[in-house]
Amino acid sequence: MTEKGRLPVEVIANAKGLAIFSGFRAAMYLAGTGGSGVVVARLADGSWSPPSAFSVVSGGFGVAYGVDVYDCVCVLNTQEAVDAYTTGETNLGAGGTMAAGPIGGTPRINNKDVKPVWTYTKSRGIYGGLTVDGTIIKERSGVNAEAYGPNTTAAQILKGEPKWPTTTQLPEVLKMSEGKSADAKVLGAVSTEPTPGDLKEL
């Protein structure tokens, strides 16, 4: 059973993609929020694509009093939501496609309630139902080129064309998030590192 207040395993298991990023802002309700992250897509065989890098610029942030640094997971529930990350720049909240996702302890998820994008934010170690509004995602083509080679596009990455970078521990983290067995040594190393939400400054 999913622990109350946590991101449900079934949400990740049914996702078409995941966008994971860290952001920061100067003060409450001020513009100028920024950050960076990666997006992965579900491949035909059920595995995950390598991560495509992006930057974050946001003009607003739901009700999040006193949060200067935060982490966010966007669960992409449709192929269209995944494809938005291949256009170079996209607005997460466009057309009302985004909503706070269900958390542990809530009733079983009804397909009628599934939004194209569910968002989960984390501050001080607790997941909650905050929504990120006005978030603009921009592909970091330079970072992708450095990781996968010149002229490698986000579309190619999310189709699984290049190989996973050998230095990332993300594959094991994704396995764990779906409730699958993962390398305990890798997860142990990850668990000892502070998340951006635990840091006082970037």
TrEMBL record:
Pfam family of the protein (one):
Ysc84
The protein's superkingdom reads Eukaryota
Can you name one GO molecular function term for this protein? phosphatidylinositol binding
Which residue ranges does the record assign to the Ysc84 actin-binding domain? 58-175
Q: Which PANTHER family match?
A: DUF500 DOMAIN PROTEIN (AFU_ORTHOLOGUE AFUA_5G07310), SH3YL1 PROTEIN
Annotated protein name in UniProt? Ysc84 actin-binding domain-containing protein
Organism the protein comes from? Cladophialophora carrionii CBS 160.54
